[in-house]
Design goal:
Layout: H1 27-65, H2 68-90, H3 106-137
Length: 139
């Protein structure tokens, strides 16, 4: 929770919170920020896509063979992915996507981030993950 503002601020005070709306960067700083973002998160994206493909393959094999063991492995793998996404999303500071003037207190930043994470996890679980895995496993 160290990413969150530490105290409630009055209307006359503006918190300095680093957000994606910081426009006082030089061109070189923007290039460095962009490069570091893609270098850090692109491998994670492909690891995540690999997990989805693996889950689709497990689901496909389970549907064809009707194997209880494969079904159990799929269920544990899906739960593992679900809890990984939960941990990832619930620790992500979504409040940084808001302009700094909206962030007045640590509590608001925390509640906004948790609510956004919950909605994303709900959408990922009930729509995207199930749809992607089902589509990957269709005969």
């Amino acid at each position: 929770m160290s990413n969150y503002p530490t105290k409630k601020l009055g209307d006359d005070q503006r918190p300095y919170v680093s957000t994606c709306w910081d426009i006082n960067k030089t061109e070189a700083e923007w290039i460095e920020a962009t490069d570091s973002f893609f270098l850090k998160y692109t491998p994670q994206w492909f690891k995540f896509v690999g997990w989805l493909i693996l889950l689709g393959v497990l689901k496909y094999i389970e549907q064809i063979t009707r194997s209880k063991l494969i079904g159990l492995i799929y269920a544990f793998s899906f739960l593992g992915l679900y809890f990984y996404l939960q941990a990832l999303l619930f620790n992500f500071p979504f409040f940084k996507f808001l302009p700094p003037r909206f962030i007045r207190a640590r509590g608001f930043a925390f509640i906004f981030s948790i609510t956004t994470a919950g909605l994303l996890l709900f959408l990922l679980h009930f729509y995207l993950l199930e749809k992607i895995i089902t589509d990957l496993s269709i005969k």
